Fold each of these.
Amino acid sequence: MTDQWTVRRSGRATKISSVAMVAFGIALFAVPFGFRTDVVQQLTTLCTLLMMAVMWNVLAGYGGLVSVGQQAYIGFGAYATIFLTQHDVTAYLAVVLAALASGVLAVALAPLLLRLRGGQFAVGTWVVAEALALLVALDEDLGGGTGVSLRGLNTIAPDWRRAYTYWLTLGFTLLLLALVFLLLRRRSGAAIQAIRDDEEAAASLGVRIMPLKFMLFVLAGFGCGAAGALTLANTLFIQPQSIFGVQWSAYMLFMVLVGGIGTYEGPILGAILFFLLQDWFAQYGAWYLIGLGAVAIAFALFLPRGLWSLADDRLPFRLLPVGYTLRPAG
Amino acid sequence: MTLLRVENVEARHGLLQAVRGVTFGVTEGEILALIGANGAGKTTLLRTVAGAHPLSGGLISYDGSYLTGVPAHRRVRRGIAYVPEGRRLFPEFTVEENLLVAGRRARSGRWNLTTVLEAFPALQPLRGRLASRLSGGQQQATAIARALMTNPRLLLIDEVSLGLSPKAVEEVYACMTVLRESGTTVILVEQDLGRALSTAGRVICLLEGRIALDAKTEGLTRDEVVTAYFGFHQARPA
Amino acid sequence: MNWVNAVIQGVLLGGLYALFACGLSLMFGVMRIINLAHGDIAVLGAFLVWSLTVHTGIGPFWALVPALPIMLILGYVLHRTVLARSLRGGPLTPLLTTFGLAIVIQNALLQAYNPDVRSLGGAAGDIATGSWRITGQISLSYLGVLILATAVLVLGGLQLMLRRTAFGREMRATAQDADTATLVGVPASSVYARATAIAVATATLAGVFLGVRSIFDASSGPTQLIFAFEAVVIGGLGSLWGTLWGGMVLGVAQTIGATIDPQYSILAGHLVFLIVLASPHGRSLLGYRREGRPA
């Protein structure tokens, strides 16, 4: 990402940097051919975290909807994959279908949850996640409370299995990034900006908030469902308490707050940082989590626009043309 | 004795500079009218004095000390009361509760629930009525009475007669007599120039955030006021 | 008879939930924020009392005598240091910070006390186990009645404070219009800090009752927050007495669910909550109402 500094003119610079980033994203598909499988698996984990961060940012950063219950979709996506494979669907197809099913779940829940505002929405989504976790734990076919393994992938050689999972995860990640990009570039982008700045003023200016929130909510459901299904494909085993655990929301909050809430690039930065921190400090257990919480509070209070704002203010151009007034020159 | 001194005060709303380097003093017991077109910065100026709007430049001194960094509720305790535009009564409180909540931490002085209700006899029968069920004039009277409960030395009244019926305006200005008699210093923002000039002893006209006129009302010609108000000479009808 | 018993036990349990909920309700009523760390603060209070009982040998109710003032101060400081700043940051910031706070408290407890499950029931003595036998199948536990009575007292006391005292009037004024309140001399931030202090103290009370009644560990907080929130929503946001009914409805739903199958207990509560949300009642409760009174 550093080679773009040489370019001066903002329009062209942004264009070049976007092309470079897309190229970089596509180049990432080649990773399994050049790196060890544990790297591939790590990158898969990073991609699932990135998906979650981007989706949480879609809700909180663009829609003003702070959710403490996105783990509902993460868990639902994972368990839907289990359910589908138990009914003789190929595992990777099941992952895709499960992500779509999570989107459908979001469609069903939207009328109930989107009427809640602020903290009510936060806890309301959480209750839904808890209820789903309890329901899943009741079902012995899904392994009950003790957990369940994903079958159907053990016929594939481990190296290839990890590569396939990685490719699918990367594909989903790029798809979600593209969807959010389109969302910001089209007319909805201006509306999103308006809502983010002042929801009531936006409503009074005729911005139709509900359809937009609905769209964001369903997109986040779909994305988190995919992240959950892919987490399962990566780890092959899940338990309801952990896949439906509120710690996912804590992670998402951390990644988005530290990276930069309401920005396109922030959550990506936050996910990478969180991934590294996880790698370095997770061994410290509770202390690590205390640190995460404290850092998140500090960012919310003292640097509410996150680390990306520091870079963004200094860069002479935007890395990606997501600003709604931006017109690439040329 | 100068009670309030405003020196080079500047205040902004985001990028918009509403008040640009305003300087004036107010003597104890004076009634000062602040006039000017919409957007001239009158309300913003009043709010910066009350502590409800941040100062972006300059100094305000009151009773011999600077107000910089003094939060609004402390200014109230030092005797600066503000009657906001639109009255802003607590809608779920009765008239009496509106008065009592302001009186709780007040300076000591002549005003308490009994004396305020004596001064505003019209409010006496309305004591138990919810503020949201009062007429505009009753609301304004309650808002001024509420401000008096804090025993102010300096009373800032924003948009005294805006949105009131002519009769209500009469009633509200009847209150001014009470204020004058009690020796309270008053700065009032008023759109009705005739009212402003007849009530106040001195007038300040703001034009685009600056003082365009600062004069005694006595002997002030209509021409001078209009020029300051609009910023140019109006052609006299031939 | 089984069902009658379930309802009675549910009503008693509702007292506990109402106690958890009233602090949440108070903070929402006055400051319009939902404190996502409320449950963890309650558990922190329970741990504080547990430590006091272990180190001094006094019963948990006596331990409340020093614990409640400590938690009051903690709540006050919490507002002055963290919440006051987050309130200035826009509507999302308090949610983000209190959620961060929840993570910090939970893991700090985990670090300080290990993940073991604890109970204050043993230290509480007879009151934790005794009961009045009404009929063969129905009994009223001393503790259940004590908790319900405490809840009624606390809610009634708060109601009285809000309605009848000058401080309560300031709190209601601040809830209606904080800006104007400061302009008539009410120090809104100090009102907020005291509301937070009261909320934290009631949460502590609830946490201790939870500990005496059953068990708790470092990660018990989120569940209690959820129950408290459900009670608040079922009872009607911003209404203190409604919170008591809400707690009872939730308690009865859980005990009836448990009578059918112990696994259904909590699920039944969630279900009732979601039904209330979906109903027109829920819609009117949660509409775009900006003004509200905390009582």
Note: The longest strand of chain A covers residues 148-149.
Amino acid sequence: MIRIVLPQHLRTLARVNGEVVLKVEGPVTQRSVLDVLEATYPTLRGTIRDHVTQQRRAFIRFFACEQDLSLESPDARLPDAVAIGEEPFLVVGAMAGG
Amino acid sequence: MSGVRVLVGTRKGAFVLTSDGKRERWDVSGPHFAGWEIFHVKGSPVDQNRLYASQSSGWFGQLIQRSNDGGKTWEPVGNKFTYEGVPGTHLWYDGTQHPWEFKRVWHLEPSLTDSDTVYAGAEDAALFRSADGGQTWEELSGLRTHSSGPRWQPGAGGMCLHTIVLDPSDPKRIYIAISAAGVFRTDDAGKTWRPVNHGLKSGSIPDPTADVGHCVHRIAMHPSRPNVLFMQKHWDIMRSDDAGESWREVSGNLPTDFGFPIDVHAHEPETIYVVPIKSDSEHFVPDGKLRVYRSRTGGNEWEALTKGLPQTDCYVNVLRDAMAVDSLDECGVYFGTTGGQVYASANAGDSWAPIVRDLPAIFSVEVQTLP
């Protein structure tokens, strides 16, 4: 099972509390995780990545295992610790303000 | 007893203000969608419990919310706004061509005849329509692909389609306004469009009387006289008596004719309201005084309405969609400020009182008159 931590606004939108836990078939990548996430919570479509291009929105970051994976290929495998559920996959709103 | 529901969009959420027909005591609910920018909330004239809201965020993009119970509960509907075909380019601030990119929905205009049909005005400028209650959106691309499109350019707030006016006497006629392109009209339900800006003069563009390029801030119509339009342009209050074919200035004795909103009294089609703003470089009311100006003659002759409004040390703005009227026997007028106040007048503007004082900066105010 894959653990996903969403930013507060997206938890509210998806009407979930805490982590989201999803079963992902096949290779665990950004794309496969987000495909399952959006299929499970359709209201999240377009909020993390573009509807058409599927590119990550500019101010969204992906973190896991204390690494910034945002610029990795969406088809690159996520760390094993994410794939086996030891560590969560974090969807983060980029820091802004001041 | 009749009542009023005021729908308020702010920089950090939506609020619903309700009162009975006296409009003295108000119930405030919200924030709905706390933390999100709510550019516009508007109800269907066919079903007053059907509301649509444009919710957006720099992080998470655009959402559309729909309510079927007058704003008590909401559900997100479709948010896929895709330009039809290859989007092409428009004029950028530096004079180069720039690709069309969807950013947000500024304005939602529910159909006059079908609660499931709603129009959305977008930045970068385009008009979308949903016929299924907001679940799916289709671009009326004849507007964006007009031959003048490459000459449209963004105003300071972006290249937004911010005004949609539906003609109650002709379901195929729609007016829209874009900053900074001007007013366009369709007479075939959105298939084809043409600019209707003859008579506008804008000193900030190379050809002041060009057919497109004007920074129109808002247009308004009284439903009993659909050929008469009023306009708050960047500078100038304008009027058309021929469905936009020609415009003439009616700024008259206003202290400044820069501003954003313009609206028409519910029962007096020659009575109009504006809120003069000091200038395009100082976006606040002149002299620290918040004054609505009313003309009972369709323009040119204006009177300041000040009773109940702050007349010292006030430096707020009133944005283009942040004024509305109710249709009770004595017309109510409402507006919201960038300082977070919503003011209401239950006597056509003669006197005012705040409904709320400390909301986030207000983007939009719409009013529903309830049976």
Note: The longest helix of chain A spans residues 30-40.
